[in-house]
């Protein structure tokens, strides 16, 4: 067993990654490729499906070859993915009929608003809100706008899938059209109580059931890779949406366990056990994971842009050369630097859910420079995390600590400020690739490599625990200013 590895595919919003993990969670091989973000119109975000495929495939081939050279046998494959992003493809050709519509895309805001009176029904079945973020309105848009699509769909010629589903279709050479319960739970079409696609929702969004994938547990037999693709008939045995995979990767298996992932966006998920906790503060009730037919639920707060704020500073306006520069710049200022960024680049998520909000900067003077931009961009993510923590507490659930992961938490300054604002311990694991690790764990469970969740929990090790240091007076003053900035941003969106 010591030369056994698990290949994890992590298809994220900005990059495709493949990692081969040893059974103790250490990385044997790692490859990553960024791909292009397309912004064809105001509020639209698309990905080229072929670029998603080629970057995923190249990353997999690289790590398989590295692992093989080290004498490691890959036992199985786990897949985790950016959630909600919608692909509709032709089953005969395997080609997408439209670019992938990314979770951040707001093009269907008007349509969602037009059926807002149905939100209570949608929320009671799916645990979600009626928002362009989720897949259903994106599928409807493709079926309505791509010429001939609806006719082909009704004839059974088209397939819908989130990225996991699309990748499995390609890897199995069209033999499997499947997804897992976590990804299904993000579509606005899946009833989280019955664990089935829901007829009322399919009718509401006018989506023919024949285009939907079969929904499996997170540890299951998703299909076998066609040997022509990766060189062997690897079994795909674990799948979860990236935020849920991070919940598993961080071993948040008990009710009250909380993880927060700081990647392109930030997503806080709190394990609520076998109870789907319904929120009165616009948090989402979602499937945390489903194993052996048993569903564990989670309460989720979604912030649409986190690392994306830093990307904007780097790629959008050239204020930074590298993301990690943001730490040195942030450290150069004191708490009362006075600049606030409300990063509504893709609208505001929880707890506001305003798709029309846009990013706003407050408090600039002639002394404002790159350091202020960087610090305000990092601080915003922490203030927004505080909004999620407050909403969770109001909903009657909370946690005394938070496990963090994702690209941003390499930034020590961010972790300390987060901890100061939340006033709870922030714990950073040694293996920060929790998302990919979670998918590997799920695959390993199904393949019989891990016997139980306890065995998986034993793999986790802490890198650093951040302890609150900031005085409450300063903290309260900053939070008050932040609240004013959000209020003004929301007023501007009206
Ligand atoms: N040292 C850093 N400080 C702040 N942000 C960072 C740092 N390093 C990376 N990031 C941000 O983290 C994000 C990448 O994280 P990752 O977890 O790989 O994202 P995703 O899975 O969404 O593609 C990028 O948006 C980048 O701007
Ligand atoms: O690609 P990430 O890590 O920002 O995650 C995206 C989320 O899954 C969207 O819901």
UniProtKB/TrEMBL annotation:
<dbReference type="InterPro" id="IPR018485">
    <property type="entry name" value="FGGY_C"/>
</dbReference>
<feature type="domain" description="Carbohydrate kinase FGGY N-terminal">
    <location>
        <begin position="6"/>
        <end position="249"/>
    </location>
</feature>
<keyword id="KW-0808">Transferase</keyword>
<dbReference type="InterPro" id="IPR000577">
    <property type="entry name" value="Carb_kinase_FGGY"/>
</dbReference>
<dbReference type="InterPro" id="IPR018484">
    <property type="entry name" value="FGGY_N"/>
</dbReference>
<keyword id="KW-0319">Glycerol metabolism</keyword>
<dbReference type="InterPro" id="IPR005999">
    <property type="entry name" value="Glycerol_kin"/>
</dbReference>
<dbReference type="GO" id="GO:0005829">
    <property type="term" value="C:cytosol"/>
</dbReference>
<dbReference type="Pfam" id="PF00370">
    <property type="entry name" value="FGGY_N"/>
</dbReference>
<dbReference type="GO" id="GO:0004370">
    <property type="term" value="F:glycerol kinase activity"/>
</dbReference>
<dbReference type="InterPro" id="IPR018483">
    <property type="entry name" value="Carb_kinase_FGGY_CS"/>
</dbReference>
<comment type="pathway">
    <text>Polyol metabolism; glycerol degradation via glycerol kinase pathway; sn-glycerol 3-phosphate from glycerol: step 1/1.</text>
</comment>
<feature type="domain" description="Carbohydrate kinase FGGY C-terminal">
    <location>
        <begin position="259"/>
        <end position="446"/>
    </location>
</feature>
<protein>
    <recommendedName>
        <fullName>glycerol kinase</fullName>
        <ecNumber>2.7.1.30</ecNumber>
    </recommendedName>
</protein>
<keyword id="KW-0067">ATP-binding</keyword>
<comment type="similarity">
    <text>Belongs to the FGGY kinase family.</text>
</comment>
<dbReference type="GO" id="GO:0005524">
    <property type="term" value="F:ATP binding"/>
</dbReference>
<dbReference type="InterPro" id="IPR043129">
    <property type="entry name" value="ATPase_NBD"/>
</dbReference>
<dbReference type="GO" id="GO:0019563">
    <property type="term" value="P:glycerol catabolic process"/>
</dbReference>
<dbReference type="GO" id="GO:0006072">
    <property type="term" value="P:glycerol-3-phosphate metabolic process"/>
</dbReference>
<keyword id="KW-0418">Kinase</keyword>
<keyword id="KW-0547">Nucleotide-binding</keyword>
<dbReference type="Pfam" id="PF02782">
    <property type="entry name" value="FGGY_C"/>
</dbReference>
């Amino acid at each position: 067993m010591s030369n056994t590895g698990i290949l994890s595919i992590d298809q994220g919003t900005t990059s495709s990654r493949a990692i081969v993990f040893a059974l103790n969670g250490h990385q044997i091989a790692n490859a990553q490729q960024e791909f292009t973000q397309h912004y064809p119109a105001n509020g639209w975000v698309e990905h080229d499906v072929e670029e998603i495929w080629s970057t995923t495939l190249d990353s997999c081939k690289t790590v398989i070859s590295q692992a093989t050279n080290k004498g490691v046998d890959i036992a199985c494959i786990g897949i985790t993915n950016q959630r909600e992003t919608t692909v509709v493809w032709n089953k005969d050709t395997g080609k997408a009929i439209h670019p992938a519509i990314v979770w951040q895309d707001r093009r269907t805001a008007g349509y969602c608003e037009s059926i807002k009176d149905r939100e209570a029904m949608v929320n009671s079945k799916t645990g979600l809100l009626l928002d362009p973020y989720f897949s259903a309105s994106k599928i409807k848009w493709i079926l309505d706008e791509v010429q001939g699509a609806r006719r082909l769909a009704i004839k059974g010629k088209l397939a819908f899938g989130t990225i996991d589903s699309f990748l499995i279709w390609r890897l199995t050479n069209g033999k499997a059209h499947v997804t897992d319960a976590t990804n299904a739970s993000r579509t606005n079409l899946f009833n989280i109580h019955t664990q089935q696609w829901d007829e009322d929702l399919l009718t509401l969004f006018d989506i023919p059931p024949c285009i939907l994938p079969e929904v499996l547990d997170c540890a299951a037999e998703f299909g076998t890779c066609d040997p022509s693709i990766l060189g062997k008939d690897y079994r795909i045995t674990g799948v979860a949406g990236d935020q849920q995979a991070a919940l598993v990767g961080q071993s948040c298996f008990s009710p009250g366990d909380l993880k927060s992932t700081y990647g392109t966006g930030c997503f806080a998920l709190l394990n609520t056990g076998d109870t789907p906790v319904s929120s009165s503060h616009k948090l989402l009730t979602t499937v945390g994971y489903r194993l052996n037919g048993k569903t564990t639920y989670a309460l989720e707060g979604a912030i649409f842009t986190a690392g994306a704020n830093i990307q904007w500073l780097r790629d959008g306006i050239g204020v930074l050369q590298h993301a990690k520069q943001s730490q040195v710049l942030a450290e150069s200022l004191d708490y009362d630097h006075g600049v606030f960024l409300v990063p509504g680049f893709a609208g505001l998520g929880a707890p506001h859910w305003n798709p029309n909000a846009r990013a706003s900067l407050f408090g600039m003077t002639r002394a404002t420079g790159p350091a202020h931009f960087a610090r305000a961009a990092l601080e915003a993510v922490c203030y927004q995390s505080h909004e999620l923590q407050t909403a969770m507490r109001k909903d009657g659930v909370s946690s005394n600590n938070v496990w963090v992961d994702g690209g941003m938490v390499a930034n020590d300054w961010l972790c300390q400020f987060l901890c100061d604002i939340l006033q709870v311990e922030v714990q950073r694991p040694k293996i920060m690739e929790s998302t990919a690790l979670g998918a590997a764990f799920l695959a390993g469970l199904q393949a019989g490599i891990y016997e139980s969740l306890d065995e998986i929990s034993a793999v986790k090790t802490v890198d650093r625990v951040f302890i609150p240091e900031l005085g409450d007076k300063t903290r309260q003053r900053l939070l008050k200013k932040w609240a004013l900035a959000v209020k003004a941003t929301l007023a501007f969106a009206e």
